[in-house]
Design brief:
- By secondary structure, the chain is an alpha+beta fold.
- It has three helices and three strands.
């Protein structure tokens, strides 16, 4: 899947706005393209983890087909915006196909 520039900019802006906490949200496919649905990080430790509330998950599903889950790693040694998957991200990606 290729994310268009506007959606990518929205994702990165949300990540910067959320620092030092991890940002999280969904990329949703709707009739006229992709849409970024930013979510609130409700994790007990939002600096190191992310969690999306069931209500926001349901709301996102109602808007269209969820095609990606997005979250940031603001405390990592990698620059914000680079397409880097942590080991945990890779394992989850494989489990959820």
């Amino acid at each position: 899947m290729k994310i268009d520039d506007q959606t990518r900019k929205e994702i990165l802006a949300h990540a910067r706005q959320s620092e030092p906490q991890e940002s999280c949200g969904f990329v949703i496919s709707i009739a006229d393209g992709l849409y970024y649905f930013p979510c609130n990080n409700v994790a007990d430790d939002p600096v190191n983890y992310f969690e999306i509330s069931p209500d926001e998950f349901i709301q996102a599903e109602g808007l269209g087909r969820i095609v990606a889950l997005v979250h940031s790693h603001p405390d990592s040694e990698h620059a914000l915006g680079l397409p880097y998957l942590s080991t945990a991200d890779r394992e989850c990606q494989l489990r959820t196909d």
